[in-house]
Amino acid sequence: MAVTILVIEDNADIRANTAEILELANYKVLTAPNGKEGVQLAMEHKPDLVICDITMPVLDGYGVLHLLHKHEEMSGIPFIFLTARSERSDVRKGMEMGADDYITKPFDPIELLNAIEGRLKKAARLRQELPQDMNGLNTLLHSVSGKDLLEDLREGRNVNRYRKKEVIYSEGNHPAYLYYILKGKVKTCKRNEDGKEIITGLYNQGEFLGYTALLESGIYKENAEALEETELAIIPREDFEELAFNSIDVMKKFMHLLARNIADSERQLLGIAYNSLRKKVADALLFLNAKYNPDNNPQFSIDISRDNLAAVAGVAKESLIRTLGDFRDEKLVNIVEGEIVLTNLKKLERMMN
């Protein structure tokens, strides 16, 4: 399938010449004479890359970029600015808003094609799911640098091992590392003044941990603890900052992770605030199944302590145990040697509707 490129340019000659160059390179080309029409075409056709002039009538290039980034399905599309102005302030503003590249008119056709090819390849790498091992981190690094940084990352770095229930970091401390889970599961949690715990996040093999405090340049706002025997790759803060704050691609990746975490937290808090006890427990079980059993393996069992499950659901442990007993009697779950097997997933899902 041909790659589709949207060209938004108010100068008719430049628009036509750019489209001709791209068509000769076997790209499918859409064109728009102003930002408003460009946004409409982008929303309708979901192009693989956008080339956009900055100074245009109706809606300028900055406005186009802003509107596209408001839609999650469009925010990952590579965006290249075209402009006749080369002042540093223009470049900085565009890159801060999330543009991927910047080409000054007049441009050489080879320069344009090389920029497009590079951005398309980088976007394809960033869309890939990270493998669940150390190579997942290397995939992210490679997407930025174009070279294999795995050995450089490993050299002089540590892989820390944690026992079940061992603390990884504590609320109020300043972050020193980015963590990458090579093996095991981790929870983040907070406690109120009465000591009651609520789990704010669950992390699995192949996921990053501790990046929120690093991105905010603040302190940890929660505790992190191993749920089982866990191995973490430790990336020093300085290395993470050099990587993230010098690459818009890496920053986008971590902003996406932050947005996903915020959505999960909002869902959890709304459930705790408004759901009945049965719905809270059902929602917690479904969340754990989705997190740790994405393929819906019917033989999958949830190995989690009753304390931790109660903290995920936001209920008292005694209430949780009674509700699990009811679910077992209703043949919604089975409990084998302390592990929970979801025996009627569809009925649990209907309970949430």
| First-last Cα distance | 39 Å
Average pLDDT for all residues? 81
Which spans of ≥5 residues are poorly predicted at pLDDT below 50?
Answer: 129-135, 146-156
- Please summarize the sheet with the most strands: 5 strands, parallel
Number of helices: 15
The radius of gyration computed from the alpha-carbon positions, rounded to a whole number of angstroms, is: 24 Å
User: Which class best fits the helix and strand makeup?
Assistant: alpha/beta
Widest sheet: strand order? 2-1-3-4-5
General shape: elongated
Secondary-structure element order, N to C: EHEHEHHEHEHHHEEEEEEHEEHHHHHEEH
Percentage of helical residues? 40-55%
Determine the strand fraction and express it as a percent band.
15-25%
What are the main properties of this structure?
alpha/beta; five-stranded parallel beta sheet; 353 residues; 48% helix; four-stranded antiparallel beta sheet
How would you sum up this structure in a few lines?
The protein is of the alpha/beta class. It has helices spanning 12-24, 35-45, 61-69, 72-75, 88-97, 109-127, 134-145, 150-154, 211-216, 237-244, 248-274, 277-292, 306-313, 317-329, 345-351, and strands at 4-8, 28-32, 49-53, 79-83, 101-104, 158-162, 167-169, 177-183, 186-191, 197-203, 208-209, 223-226, 230-236, 333-336, 339-342. It has a 5-stranded parallel sheet, with helices on both faces. Strands 6-13-8-11 form a 4-stranded antiparallel sheet.
Describe this structure in words.
The protein has 353 residues and is α/β, with parallel strands linked by helices. Helix content is 48%, strand content 21%. The strands form 4 sheets. The chain has a 5-stranded parallel beta sheet, sandwiched between helices. Helix 12 crosses helix 13 and helix 13 crosses helix 14. About 5% of the residues have low confidence.
